[in-house]
UniProtKB/TrEMBL annotation:
Organism of provenance: Acacia crassicarpa
PANTHER family, A to Z: GDSL ESTERASE/LIPASE EXL3 (PTHR45642), GDSL-LIKE LIPASE_ACYLHYDROLASE FAMILY PROTEIN, EXPRESSED (PTHR45642:SF95)
Coiled coil: none
Example of a GO cellular component annotation carried by this entry: extracellular region
Protein name: GDSL esterase/lipase EXL3
Length: 366
């Protein structure tokens, strides 16, 4: 094993124990947190993949969709699929609520949006996207480069409506969330041969980190200053990865988790360098790897009973179009489950993770 892998992996149990000592009851209603200096955030913007895609994929030609039951089963009044890869909300919604902006962060491509929807923020994310351009290409979804182009288009739209001065305030004072990278490792690298023929895991995570740095510099160049970047979670423990790579016992995929840890270490290094290069920036690393391990290690403390399979269907492999109204054995009580489908957490888990990941980091954006 690579020495860096050994060093990083050896530290994990200590982190698990630390988080597992905490028992928290999470309220499903998102309450805005107290911001430093009583600041008001004008808008929240999200870039990335299915974790923060509220339905952009509904409006493009791709198989990576979820705008059908049982997705959205617990959204609003219930049984309302929106294109969110969840039974309810996704983290971009929850984060917008925490910053006191609004309860739902809509998809930029939604044709029903009004001016006020735009002014308070949107998500440009696309389920299936990755830092590696090949990832988005394989899934026929919106790559990060096009998400940036949509943001530039957005700026022109609101500038035409509210003027340059107000637009500048919105762009510089808002919160930006970047959540992407899991599909690069879980799908593009581990499940297709193309990148494995070109890279080993260390060099592939180098490619991802370089792409992440380039994206963040471009986003800063457009005007963004307060940028929260999610690391990759313990993707080897997702039900689908347990099924594909976990053997007969469906254990967590060690290779996937080690790749996530290695990438996260490189991402934090790149972000530190960019914070030094751009003194006006507030680039905040958001660790979701260890919080997910906390939920897996001590689920009962957080109100979960099932952690190794999703609620939808058998819970072992169903995701996207495989998780549909014909999926047999879909669970009755999703709040017992950490995962909704074989790849995405439940609404309840997203609330728990968002609090663990973000609450202590909010001050770092100011």
């Amino acid at each position: 094993m690579d020495p860096l892998f050994q060093k990083l992996f050896s530290q994990m149990p200590l982190v698990i124990i630390w988080f597992s000592a905490i028992a928290i009851i999470f309220d499903q209603n998102v309450s805005a947190v107290s911001l430093p200096n009583h600041e008001t955030i004008p808008a929240v913007f999200a870039f990335g993949d299915s974790i923060v895609d509220p339905g952009n994929n509904n409006y493009i030609s791709t198989l990576v969709k979820c705008n059908f039951p049982p997705y959205g089963r617990d959204f609003a009044e219930g049984n309302h699929p929106t294109g969110r890869f969840s039974n309810g909300l996704v983290p971009s919604d929850i984060i917008a609520g925490k910053f006191g902006v609004k309860k739902l962060l809509p998809a930029y491509l939604d044709p029903s949006l009004h001016l006020q929807d735009l002014l308070t923020g949107v998500s440009f994310a696309s389920g299936g996207a990755g830092y590696d351009p090949l990832t988005s290409g394989l899934m026929s979804v919106i790559p990060l480069s096009d998400q940036l182009n949509m943001f530039k288009e957005y700026i022109k739209k609101i500038k035409d409506e509210v003027g340059e001065s107000r637009t500048a305030i919105i762009i510089t004072k808002s919160i930006y969330i970047v959540c992407i990278g899991s599909d690069d490792i879980a799908n593009t690298y581990l499940q297709t041969p193309i990148r494995r023929l070109q890279y080993d895991i260390p060099s592939y995570t180098d490619l991802m980190a370089a792409q992440a740095s380039n994206f963040l510099q471009e986003l800063y160049g457009i005007g963004a200053r307060r940028i929260g970047v999610f690391g990759i979670t313990a993707i080897g423990c997702m039900p689908s990865q347990r099924t594909i790579e976990g053997g007969k016992l469906r254990e967590c995929s060690r290779n996937a988790n080690l790749a996530a840890v290695l990438f996260n270490s490189k991402l934090t290094s790149e972000m530190g360098a960019l914070n030094r290069k751009f003194p006006e920036s507030r680039l905040v690393y958001l660790d979701v790897y260890n919080p997910l391990l906390a939920l897996l290690q001590n689920p009962f403390a957080y109100g979960f009973k099932v952690t190794n399979k999703g609620c939808c269907g058998t819970g072992s492999i169903e995701v996207g179009i495989l998780c549909n109204s014909y999926s047999v054995n879909t669970c009755e009580n999703s709040s017992d489950y950490l995962f909704w489908d074989s790849y995405h957490p439940t609404d309840k888990a997203y609330h728990a993770l968002s609090s663990l990941v973000l609450d202590d980091k909010i001050k770092d954006f100011f």
